[in-house]
Amino acid sequence: MSDNQNLLAEQRRALILDEVRRRGGVRVNELTRRLNVSDMTVRRDLDALARQGMVEKVHGGAVPVAEVRTHEPGFEAKSALEPGAKEDIARAAVAMVAPGSAIALSGGTTTYAVARRLLDVPDLTVVTNSMRVADVFHSAPAPEPGGGARPGAATVVLTGGVRTPSDALVGPVADQAIGSLHFDVLFLGVHGVSVEAGLSTPNLAEAETNRRLIRSARRVVVVADHTKWGKVALSSFARLEDVDTLVTDAGVSDEVRAAMAEHLPGLVVADRESGAAAASGPAGEGWDGA
Fold first, then answer.
1. Cβ atoms within 10 Å, residue 146
2. Is the pLDDT higher at 54 or at 195?
3. Could you tell me which of 203, 202, 199 has the C-alpha nearest to residue 223?
4. Spatial distance between the Cα atoms of 4 and 15, rounded to a whole number of angstroms
5. 226, 271, 222: which is closest to 91 by C-alpha?
6. Bigger pLDDT: 158 or 196?
7. 152: how many CB neighbours lie within 10 A of its CB?
8. For a pLDDT cut of 90, what percent of the chain falls above it?
9. pLDDT tier, 74 (very low <50, low <70, confident <90, very high otherwise)
10. Among 20, 71, 22, 61, which Cα is nearest to 233's?
11. What global pTM score does this model have?
């Protein structure tokens, strides 16, 4: 997108619309930097596009109208969104995991980031319905000859099931496999988080599989960057009260942070600069696997 601040409004809005369709959504702060215009100008442009039925405004940005409730982006498309925030979240989330734990990871690009950092935690049993997450462990570098097992070696169980666009496995096979297991902690990715709708996904089968994961977990940790707040997809599968801890990134606004802290038992906000995490609530004080 151009950085020319003298673009005509029609040109600017065409560029914004193209970006929304290409990426599946945009943030106001991203557009102000790319277009070199004010926050107010971008918001007026989004208002105009929304009145024309071209986009739907969400908290902090806009998404395509046709994709608000039912569209499920592919894994590669989602991987390009907020990569730095996902790494911050993963770093904070893995600090909650003790060696020897039984861990479950749902599908998603944020849980994928968590999985890569779990490679350094020894003696884990990992259950996942994500083909991408399973591949993280299966493709990890082998130890040097004579060096023994890789320090972070884990036993990985892939549930089976029907593949979604984001490479998660869902449906009766996945549900049955998950229902017979018990996890110390579940790291759960979501499409949307809101006070009214709780956790939601555009995929009905994935909603049921996520419910099974939650029921099988002693502790539920949602990993979701700040762009997920305020989004509501087709199917809700859990209330905020069903979550023990939500781990998000420092891009979350003070207003949203207050709402999260009010409705979630525990909140952890990853701080990229210090490498630390700000916690609130009893569940946000860390977990030692006990």
1. 5
2. 195
3. 199
4. 12
5. 271
6. 158
7. 16
8. 48
9. low
10. 71
11. 0.71
8 A C-beta contact, residue 16 and residue 31: yes
Could you tell me how many residues make up the chain?
290
Higher-pLDDT residue of 64, 175:
175
User: What is the 3-class SS of the chain, one letter each residue?
Assistant: CCCCCCCCHHHHHHHHHHHHHHHCCEEHHHHHHHHCCCHHHHHHHHHHHHHCCCEEEECCEEEEHHHCCCCCCCHHHHHCCCHHHHHHHHHHHHCCCCCCCEEEECCCHHHHHHHHHHCCCCCEEEEECEHHHHHHHHCCCCCCCCCCCCCCCEEEEECCCEECCCCEEECHHHHHHHHCCCECEEEEECCEEECCCEEEECCHHHHHHHHHHHHCECCEEEECCHHHECCCCCEEEECHHHCCEEEEECCCCHHHHHHHHHHCCCEEEECCCCCCEEEECHHHHCCCCC
Average pLDDT, stretch 150-173? 84
Task: Give how far Cα 91 sits from Cα of 95, 155, 220, 226, Å.
Answer: 7, 21, 17, 16
Report the 10 Å Cβ neighbour count for 122. Answer: 13
State the average pLDDT over residues 210-219.
Answer: 97
234 burial via Cβ count (<10 Å: 0-12, 13-18, 19+): middle
- Residue given tokens 């539920």 in the structure block: 220
Residue 76 confidence (pLDDT) above 70:
no
Residue of 156 and 8 predicted with greater confidence: 156
182 burial class (0-12, 13-18, 19+ CB within 10 angstroms)?
Answer: exposed
Looking up tokens 């490679």 gives 119
Confidence check: pLDDT of 10 > 90: no
